[in-house]
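Protocol step 4 of 6: structure prediction from sequence.
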Amino acid sequence: MAKSKIIKELANGSIDTQTALKRTKVLLQELDNDDVLRWINCEIEGYSSGSEVPEYRKISGQLYGSYFKGSMAAHMKYTHVPLPLGKMPDEAKQAILVTDVTQGIEALKRMVSESEQSEAKTLARGIPADFYPYIATCNNDPYMIITSASVELNMPQILNIFSKVESILLDILYYLEKQFGNLDELDIDTESKNEEELKEIIRHIQVIIYNDHSVSIGDNNKIKDSTISSAINE
């Protein structure tokens, strides 16, 4: 059987990820299953606060900041340099250095494009000012006065989000084609399957979506909820 147009277009890169998500959503609507649709809706619209975020959207980064040491009258100033985390507990380091990227695919694509045109050529998440004294304390440095801090995200990991989503979509589409035939009309005949067969199809798609990337619920602290923006040098 000749491969469906949507599969060939996604595989050869002639359609973007957002378009592929929307077309696949049309197909999955026929299965009428909230769990199957939840992932694809989140990838299109973005993950809401407190919702589960896949592991491939948890992006590590490097903490940068500006600070001075000494008194206001005599001090050394450091601008946009890596900030050590000293003896900070691992859980707190994780909360600071790992960012849940919650933007929908199209919004994330625009952010990446804008960052590539910026001087910094990266994305960053600002750290709330009330965490600055804690960072200085973990470094056992009472003379460190932090004036700004942000985590610059690992760009290859961000770009991998697009590849991961496309891979999941291809697996779903290949499976739907195997079960229902050609997908060119963006329609599947669910009436051709009995109830047990449909349950198995839904279960298999759930495995494709969720089994290869575990999710965890964010702790909703102020660091996790900080805004991601294009990074600029302080």
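Step 5 (inspection) to follow. The helical segments are 5-11, 17-29, 34-45, 90-97, 105-117, 132-138, 155-180, 195-210.
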